[in-house]
Every structure is written in C-alpha cells, then in structure tokens.
Amino acid sequence: MLEIHDVRKTFFPNTVNERRALQGIDLHLAEGDFVTVIGSNGAGKSTILNTIAGKLTPDAGSVRVAGKDVTRMADHRRARWIGRVFQDPTAGTAPNLTIEENMALALRRGHARGLSRSVSGGRREVFRRELVKLELGLEDRLTAKVGLLSGGQRQALSLLMATFSGPKILLLDEHTAALDPSRAELVTRLTEQVVAEHALTTLMVTHNMSQALQVGNRLIMMHDGRVILELDAEQKARATPADLLAEFGKIKGAVVDDKTMLS
Ligand SMILES: Nc1ncnc2c1ncn2[C@@H]1O[C@H](COP(=O)(O)OP(=O)(O)OP(=O)(O)O)[C@@H](O)[C@H]1O
C-alpha cells in the first residue's frame, strides 16, 4: 500500500547549514500495517511524514501509494488518500467554526466541488453517528464552536475527520504528545479503533516508548536520517521500553529527550 524506496532529502545542500534529514529510507507497508516510529531528536521522523504527505519533495527516491507513484504529486492532489493528525490540537480543526462545519469541510477535502460547509439534516445524522463512536458526548454539541473544546476532544475530532475523505494512509505526528495522560490514552484507543475500522495503513511518530510498543504491528527506530532498527509484530510483543532505551543508548551522540527517557 505504501512503498518508500531510497528516499533522500538534504536541507541547505552545500552550505554550512547542510542537514541530511533523510539518507536512504526504504519502507514497505502492506494494507492495514500500523507502524510506530521512534527516534532521536532530528532523526528525520517529521521529514519522512512530510515527504509522504507531499509537503516536501525528496531529492531522490520514490513514494508510491496503492501502486501509484506520488513522489512529485502536489500535496493537495494526494490529500484524499492521506489523512494526517499533528501534535498541536489546534492544527487540524478551525476554532471559529462549529463541530458540524468542521466535519463538513473535512468531508469536502479531496473532492473538487459539490460539497460545502453547510450541513443538511441527513449529513447531520451521519456526523452524529460518527461522533457517538468517540464516546465524548460531542454528538450533542454539533453547533458548538470547536475552539471551546479541550485539547483531547479536538484531537479525537481531528482523528475522526482525518478518515472522512476515505484515505488509504494515516500519518500521526506525535498526536498524543500534547495531551495529559488520560486524554492521551483515550486518543490512543480511538486511534487503534479508527485504524482497525478503516484498515488504514498507518505511521505513528511517538516519543513514548510504551505507546510505541503497545499499538501497531510493526516498529521502526530512526536516527540521522536512517532506519536503524525494525521490529515485526513478534519482536515488538517481546520488547520492553527498557530494550528500546538500550538501543538508543548504543547510538553514539544521539540526543534523546526527557519525554523519551521517562516513557
Ligand atoms: N524545513 C527545514 N529546513 C531546514 N532543515 C530542516 C527542515 N525540516 C527539518 N530540518 C532538519 O532536518 C533534520 C530532521 O528533522 P525532523 O524534523 O524530520 O526530525 P524529527 O525526527 O522529527 O525530530 P524531533 O523528534 O526533534 O521532532 C533536523 O536536523 C532538522 O533540523
């Protein structure tokens, strides 16, 4: 479903600020694979997600989604196949629009025309049914402004909205990092639910070692623009956070932040 072949990206090449963010990434994800991504600071985790989403064009290599080469396709043209949730709960939703208006816009994403942010009775019912799944009572607050919701509620809504265009790929960039532990747990559970329900091929960046082991069926560790460790489902089931930290410990000069050390 997602094939990344020898992807390379260097920022500010041939200058004193040169950063080799990706140095030959190869990743093949089958439909429904859920890969957690961990790594030191500056390892290239966000850069690889940006490359898949089309925010960045790699210098070399290719990205294929469902067999189609999207390497040089503009981000808005691949948007309907790729859902994304960011760390910042305010990033995925518009605060001054209501819950139902936000959902209507998400539904329109990837469709050229024909749908607007206005909400008909029929569509309202669909939104209500979707919101019930979150178990946050948002189905009774369809006309509330999204800016009034808590961070956890907004992330849950962003996650739901990310699936509206019928994406094949879901990219999660530390989407639970800004939440308190109980909200993070809730959004993690919803993530597993949403991924399973839509059989989404998923990459989830996290600094939380327990979470990286708890969810998904594969794990990769990145450092310095490379994948330096890959675990399959069986290896992942046997590994502990201490094992992952020990792997980090083997990397000379790797900077691992406090969040990672404490997780
Ligand atoms: N737009 C950019 N311009 C210049 N350099 C960049 C840009 N984006 C990323 N970099 C550099 O590329 C490298 C990889 O960055 P990236 O954000 O992908 O790392 P990361 O693994 O997500 O790190 P973190 O966990 O700290 O967020 C870093 O050295 C970073 O400074």
Automatic annotation (TrEMBL):
It is found in: Cell membrane. It is a peripheral membrane protein. One of its GO terms (cellular component) is plasma membrane. It comes from Micrococcus flavus. One of its GO terms (molecular function) is ATP binding. It comes from the Bacteria. InterPro entries: AAA+_ATPase (IPR003593), ABC_transporter-like_ATP-bd (IPR003439), ABC_transporter-like_CS (IPR017871), ABC_transporter_ATP-bind (IPR050166), P-loop_NTPase (IPR027417). This is Putative ABC transport system ATP-binding protein. Keywords: ATP-binding, Cell membrane, Membrane, Nucleotide-binding, Transport. Its main location: membrane. Pfam families: ABC_tran (PF00005). SUPFAM superfamilies: P-loop containing nucleoside triphosphate hydrolases (SSF52540). The keyword Nucleotide-binding applies. The lineage of its organism: Bacteria, Bacillati, Actinomycetota, Actinomycetes, Micrococcales.
